[in-house]
Amino acid sequence: MTPTDGLPMPQRVGAILTIALGITIAVLDGVIANVALPTIGNELSATPAESIWIVNAYQLVITMTLLSLSSLGDIIGYRRIYLVGLGLFTVTSGLCAMSDSLTTLTLARVAQGLGAAALMSVNTALLRLIYPRRYLGRGMGINSLVVAVSTAAGPTVAAGILAVASWQWLFAVNVPIGLVALVIGRKYLPFNDGVKEQRFDKISALMNALTFGLFFLALSGFAQGQSLKFVAIEAAATLVVGLFFVRRQLQQPYPLLPVDLLRIPIFALSMCTSISSFCAQMLAMVSIPFYFQRNLGLNEIETGLLLTPWPLATMVLAPIAGRLVEKVHGGLLGGIGMALFATGLFSLAWLPAHPGYLDICLRMVICGAGFGLFQSPNNHTIVSSAPRHRSGGASGMLGTARLVGQTTGAALVALAFNYFSDAGTHVSLLIAGSFAVFAAVVSTLRLSHARAAA
Which helix (H) or strand (E) holds 260? Predict the structure, then answer.
């Protein structure tokens, strides 16, 4: 079997199921923790400012370790990183469920974030081994479908669990799913040879953690109204450490931050498109619930139902786009998708004063359809444009782009609400639409570059 042949069908099904289960618990965990944060905070006697670290600790660790773990995957194999991450995530989910204080829960979430980072770091690199080259786009589409379904189901799952059980079960539910995924994964996930001459760069790993950790803290501090003096110090430290980090990477034959991949024009353009798209997505998804509840007076159930058409539309379009990218240039699909996404965002920004449910749902469907049409082809382009032995680096960069975009988008929402109060959602949606337009333009620039082979 050649590296581009993928796996035999029975093994492919088992490997896909393992990836799907891992994605499901990682995505669900992030969503349901956000939904249940007020409940958890109340039961642990924590203030809202203290409670936010239940979410931030998880997100921060993923941001700081994702690229390092993807580099390690290139060296020792993607299967090993994925299974270790899956095991760690499963065990620490149990520890989260047994936590009896904010401190123990936050520490467990730190370890859980490390497991999630391992899953995310090599997820798409494994897809490249699982699927034949000609069907990689379909694999990306199924991957996006699972993410969309998990995201859409998150609030419902959280509400259902909290209706019949305590918040601890939000984390305990991951344990049986993780154990099943581990058993299947050990049997079906493919092996790959690491790059023998590549060595793990511990200094670069530390500099990477500091750079992205400081960036996250600076943006979070700014969003939460931290003293501008401290934010400026954190931002300056980010720039200084980041400068030395990038300079070191330029001197490495196998850089932890894949600056070598950024020299590939279509890869660099795809990364820029990805960051912009996820920034736009987060700007909208964080700000819209405030508009529904504060301006329209809707309750939590109505808000959840009106948000659902977005991921449902993404769920429908993502697999279709995954098939289309086998015949149509990803730059064109991404450009059309982001143009449609921008249309939906601007139409939400200019909703009538008293919109009906249908008015809102149609606009949410346009947003979700545009994002679904964009996501699979863009992910396919990022992974397939990298050399096969650098698939881990490409996979890590894909996850990093998402985190950087979402973190930036969340900070911009806070900025909009701080400066524009009740008009914060309107301003956030206008900014989101602008990012989507930029992403559409950058995506179409890729048309001048040949389609990458998987």
Answer: helix 259-262
Which residue, 178, 131, 141, is CA-closest to 13? 131
Residues 6 or more apart whose CB falls under 8 angstroms from that of 294 comprise 422
Q: Model confidence at 451, in pLDDT bands (50, 70, 90)?
A: low
Whole-structure pTM value? 0.80
Residues in the chain, total: 454
Candidates 22, 128, 111; CA nearest to 73 is 128
Mention every residue, 6+ apart, whose C-beta is less than 8 A from residue 48.
Answer: 38, 41
The tens digit of pLDDT for each residue in 207-241 reads: 999 998 898 888 878 776 778 888 899 999 999 99
* Distance of alpha carbon 51 from alpha carbon 95, whole angstroms: 17
Q: Is the pLDDT of residue 1 over 50?
A: no
Nearest alpha-carbon partner for 16 in 149, 124, 148, 153: 124
Could you give the angle at the alpha carbon of 259 between the alpha carbons of 385 and 324, nearest 5°? 20
**Under 8 Å between Cβ of 436 and 359:** no
The answer to whether 345 touches 280, Cβ cutoff 8 Å, is yes
Domains, the chain, in order of start with CATH, read 1-201 (1.20.1250.20), 257-454 (1.20.1250.20)
Token pair recorded at residue 405: 């975009």
Output phi, psi for 161, to 5 deg. -65, -45
Token representation of residue 54: 């239940």
- 184 Cβ contact list (under 8 Å, min separation 6): 14, 17, 18, 21
- For CA atoms 23, 275, 398, 331, the dihedral sign is positive
